[in-house]
Design goal:
This protein is mostly helical. The chain has two domains: about 100 residues, Orthogonal Bundle (DNA polymerase, domain 1); about 170 residues, hpI Integrase, Chain A (Orthogonal Bundle). It contains 13 helices and five strands. The strands form two sheets. Strands 1-2-3 form a three-stranded antiparallel beta sheet. Strands 4-5 form a two-stranded antiparallel sheet. Helix 10 crosses helix 13 and helix 11 packs across helix 12. The N and C termini lie far apart (about 80 Å). The model has no long low-confidence stretch (mean pLDDT about 85).
Length: about 300
């Protein structure tokens, strides 16, 4: 037998041999670089970086192997005041880091697997009343108006969709927005522009759809003061989905418009708004243009 010949057993042993584990800071940077190289969205990579940087400030730049279940328990105990949904997201992102470490053979197991999953209370989404929607339109700055109406009337996702639009994606004559498949949660589709949104877009839409992210945050902070505590996360999309569903009564159609599944629409938005409120919200008619879905023309009047 040739002793220089590596057996399959030897080969597997070499391939699966543990690798020296870096410190936490280096592990985070290598994870972020891998996610960027894998064409993950900038929004996702940035959110991952922010959360993991908070965790590093809590633990210090310790060797990755020193982060045990006890360390994670201490982190989540310190985060007890945060909402369950926030802590569940943090657990998912920590697990992403340690799963990456296991794949790189820096660790033999993911310590997050030993933690209890965090239960999230399923509460109905918050939506705007027609009067609150009117207040936003009356107080919105001109530069933020396209962002507002595309979110509130078309149901587009603010960062993943609206802020990625080019002016050419918005066709006011056909009353539709083209959504190009993005890197997170988006599907290629055409979204009808309701009649009520068209005058605002004609008046305020410029060469670019949205101002900078910093400007959006500043103007949104000012805008939300006019409706007080009624502004919640994703309230514009929740509002659009609820009124679209109340107006049309067609879960399949609204799922196509929003780029969601019918199951999600039924679970979150069915019955959230009354048809008479939907008529007030849209100003009497939804869309005077016909909408093509699944090869069929649908009237949205």
């Amino acid at each position: 037998m040739n002793t220089c010949t590596m057996t399959a057993y030897d080969w597997n042993a070499v391939q699966n041999a543990p690798q020296p584990a870096p410190n936490l800071a280096e592990a985070i940077q290598r994870l972020l670089a891998a996610k960027t190289a894998a064409n993950k969205s900038q929004i996702y990579v940035k959110a991952l970086n922010v959360m993991l940087a908070q965790f590093q400030r809590f633990t210090g730049d310790v060797p990755l192997a020193q982060i045990t279940v006890e360390v994670l328990d201490a982190w989540f105990k310190a985060r007890a005041a945060h909402a369950p949904a926030t802590r569940a997201t943090e657990l998912n992102r920590l697990s992403t880091l340690f799963t990456f470490a296991v794949r790189r053979r820096w660790l033999s197991a993911n310590p997050c697997d030993q933690l209890e999953r965090i239960a999230i209370d399923c509460k109905p989404p918050k939506i705007l009343t027609p009067a609150e929607a009117d207040a936003l339109l009356e107080n919105c700055s001109p530069r933020l108006m396209p962002w507002l109406v595309l979110g509130m009337f078309c149901g587009l996702r603010p960062e993943a969709e609206i802020q990625r639009l080019d002016r050419a994606d918005i066709d006011l004559e056909r009353q539709r927005v083209q959504i190009v498949a993005g890197k997170i949660r988006t599907r290629w589709r055409f979204v009808p522009i309701p009649d009520r949104a068209v005058p605002f877009l004609r008046q305020h839409l410029g060469a670019t759809v949205c101002p900078s992210h910093v400007t959006i945050k500043r103007d949104r902070r000012t805008l939300r003061k006019c409706i007080g505590d009624c502004w919640h996360a994703d309230v514009l999309r929740h509002t659009a989905a609820s009124y679209w569903l109340a107006y049309t009564g067609d879960i399949g159609l609204v799922a196509t418009v929003l780029g969601n599944s019918p199951q999600i629409l039924a679970r979150h938005y069915n019955g959230m708004a009354a048809p008479e409120d939907a008529a007030k919200f849209f100003g009497g008619t939804l869309c005077s243009k016909q909408f093509s879905t699944n090869g069929k023309l649908v009237s949205l009047k």
